[in-house]
Amino acid sequence: MSMKTTPYWWEDEPREAASKIAPPAKVDVAIVGAGYTGLSAALVLARSGLSVAVFEAGQLGEGASSRNGGMVGPSFHKLGIAGLKAQYGVDKTNEILKESVGFVDFLEDFLKTEKIDADFKRTGRFLGALKPAHYDTMAAGLEDLQTACGVKGEMVTNSALESETGSAKFFGGLVFHQDGGLHPAKYHSGLVAKVREAGVVILDHTPVGKVEKMAAGLILTTPNGQTTADKVAICTNGYTGSAFKEFKRRILPLRSAIIATEPLAPEVMKRLMPKHRMQGDSRRLFAYYRPSPDGSRILFGGRATGLKDAPNKNAALLHRSMCEIYPELNTTKISHVWSGLVAYTFDHSPHIGKIGDLHFAMGYCGSGVARSTYFGTKLGHKILGQEELGHTSFDEMPLKGKPFYNGSPWFMPAVLSWHRAADRLGL
Ligand SMILES: Cc1cc2nc3c(=O)[nH]c(=O)nc-3n(C[C@H](O)[C@H](O)[C@H](O)COP(=O)(O)OP(=O)(O)OC[C@H]3O[C@@H](n4cnc5c(N)ncnc54)[C@H](O)[C@@H]3O)c2cc1C
């Protein structure tokens, strides 16, 4: 297949050339990672009058923040309500769900207040049920969520399906009305501009190799020089490397990939995605799909074939997965395929806090567009010591690793293959 292996999003928002800025000798706060988390934290800190430098190992938007699917939702906890209650009790569960249902409002307000044009739209999200039993599970789940946190959603019966999807594969489905979509790279560029306006120095192509505590403060070492900071925040999510072993051994990096189809005829788009919603379905190995913001093509994402980037294999896998839902796209060409790393955690929860001298927020488990903005902002307030503004129901949930796990999830390809096989067998 002849296709580009860079994100479709970068056609509208090409990456910036390397800036070659030298690290400042001293700042109040140094942030490692220039994705949504690090940039959101930097904005809060700089606007409170602190000097801030953000260090980015690659080009700006190298990580997940300019590569993702741009699908925005409350990202309810992956444990589900029953799992949450078993782990944290009823009160904490309700707190977590009520806070999560506000993530999209938070992001929408943020985009409006900051005047960032990222093509954000409250499209709603449609989830198709591939079996009657899946439909029943969705209905029960929706009812529980409505009771716990007032989420706005409705079931779509078989007879109403045509108004939601052109796929004949579903028995029914569920629509979450609060969800939406945006252009992730436009959002990232908009955030970079705001952060710079606030006086933050952003250093691209400047990987932080280590952070050491000395009498003068925390010393960050990079190939381009050193910076001394009073405080340091690690915002490296799925890209957390060996420089930060204490974080790496608590995070499961997983690769997620997306394909973009070539432009489709307007009548095909209208039939397949009549309401321009974000979409997914009830397969074990979750696939996420959506129309491009201009409505001209389909972007279809899911788990990649392995931990390393393998564009051809990923394109073939995702094309197959897309055709399981929309068989008529069998001969449709793929214009782009790309991938990036997301960060799972062993308790399926995002985390924010401090380990040793290092502040952090990470572990969005693949749903981080709204979460990372929200947690990055909270992180900024926490670093400033603003307890009330920094508070979240995710506080006091320690980020834990597992014995013998060192940060390489060698077992994940086997786990994913099992889920793929189970989907094929209809288990
Ligand atoms: C293909 C894909 C699709 C996705 N789709 C969705 C979606 O539709 N909806 C959704 O909600 N979420 C989605 N996500 C997840 C979402 O994009 C992430 O959760 C979010 O962008 C995380 O932001 P972040 O700032 O924490 O991390 P990132 O944006 O990953 O940024 C971390 C940065 O840290 C840098 N870094 C690492 N180590 C160092 C170092 N030592 N020194 C300096 N810099 C360093 C990296 O280069 C990287 O740029 C998707 C992710 C991927 C990869």
Q: How are the SSEs placed, and which strands pair?
A:
Blueprint: H1 9-12, E1 26-32, H2 36-47, E2 52-55, E3 71-72, H3 80-101, H4 103-114, E4 125-129, H5 132-149, E5 153-156, E6 172-176, E7 180-181, H6 184-197, E8 201-203, E9 210-214, E10 217-222, E11 225-234, H7 245-248, E12 252-261, H8 266-272, E13 278-281, E14 288-291, E15 298-303, H9 311-325, E16 334-344, E17 351-355, E18 358-362, H10 369-383, H11 387-390, H12 412-424
Parallel strand pairs: 1-2, 1-11, 2-8, 4-13, 11-18
Antiparallel strand pairs: 3-7, 4-6, 5-6, 9-10, 10-11, 12-15, 12-16, 13-14, 14-15, 17-18
Helix pairs in contact: 2-6, 2-10, 3-5, 4-10
CATH architecture of the domain at 13-68 and 185-252 and 346-410: 3-Layer(bba) Sandwich
- Would you report the number of β strands? 18
Spell out which ligands are present.
flavin-adenine dinucleotide
Which radius of gyration do the C-alpha atoms yield? 21 Å
Order of helices and strands, N to C?
HEHEEHHEHEEEHEEEEHEHEEEHEEEHHH
Distance between the termini: 32 Å
Low-confidence stretches: none
Q: What coarse outline follows from CA principal-axis ratios?
A: globular
Number of helical regions: 12
Largest sheet: 8 strands, mixed
CATH superfamily assignment of the domain at 13-68 and 185-252 and 346-410?
FAD/NAD(P)-binding domain
Within the CATH hierarchy, at the fold level, what is the topology of the domain at 13-68 and 185-252 and 346-410?
FAD/NAD(P)-binding domain
Mean pLDDT: 95
Into which percentage range does the β-strand content fall? 15-25%
